[in-house]
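Tokens for chain A. Residues wanted.
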């Protein structure tokens, strides 16, 4: 069974921000994107610049995550 614990918008924002900063996203971008993601607004409700920023930052986060996963696997010999 998959249970989700309720999180406040502030908790979501902090979680997103910390994950983005850990992925070497500049703090100012991490803060803005975390606010946008935590608000759970539809793309149509956001400015085009905000949608583009979120997409760009999320792609950077994904690339960094893949890189770290590869390094971890290489370090443990899990090719």
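Reply:
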């Amino acid at each position: 069974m998959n249970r989700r614990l309720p999180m406040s918008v502030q908790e979501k924002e902090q979680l997103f921000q910390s994950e983005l900063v850990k992925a070497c996203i500049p703090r100012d971008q991490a803060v803005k994107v975390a606010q946008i993601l935590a608000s759970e607004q539809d793309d149509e409700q956001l400015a085009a610049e905000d949608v583009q920023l979120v997409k760009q930052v999320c792609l950077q986060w994904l690339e960094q995550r893949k890189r770290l996963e590869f390094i971890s696997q290489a370090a443990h010999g899990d090719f």
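Residues 9-76 form one domain. The chain has three helices and no strands.
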